[in-house]
């Protein structure tokens, strides 16, 4: 979500501008995750199921919850092709 979905005005000027979201390489975004405007997610990070990411997450970090909090650092993950 790069914007709030509606304008908030003060003295006729919009005060809630849209901001970009930046997602690094090899980021695992699980089911039902919302990433809000202005957030950067670093390379190799994992965003836990049903999380709302309101602040940036660094490289190789795991963030979970609502609002999401970093719970682990220096992780590595690999996609499994076996079922």
From TrEMBL:
One GO term in the molecular function aspect is:
transferase activity
Keyword Zinc-finger in record: no
Keyword tags: Transferase
Gene3D superfamilies attached to this UniProt entry? Hexapeptide repeat proteins
Q: Which PANTHER family match?
A: LIPOPOLYSACCHARIDE BIOSYNTHESIS O-ACETYL TRANSFERASE WBBJ-RELATED, SIALIC ACID SYNTHASE-RELATED
Quote the protein name from its UniProt record: Transferase hexapeptide repeat family
In its UniProt entry, the species of origin is given as Vibrio maritimus
């Amino acid at each position: 979500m790069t914007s709030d979905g509606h304008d908030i005005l003060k003295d006729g000027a919009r005060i809630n501008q849209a901001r970009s979201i930046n997602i690094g390489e090899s980021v695992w975004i699980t089911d039902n995750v919302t990433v809000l405007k202005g957030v950067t997610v670093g390379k190799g990070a994992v965003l836990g199921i049903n999380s709302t990411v309101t602040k940036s997450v660094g490289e190789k970090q795991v963030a979970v919850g609502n609002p999401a909090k970093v719970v682990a650092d220096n992780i590595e993950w690999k996609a499994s092709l076996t079922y």
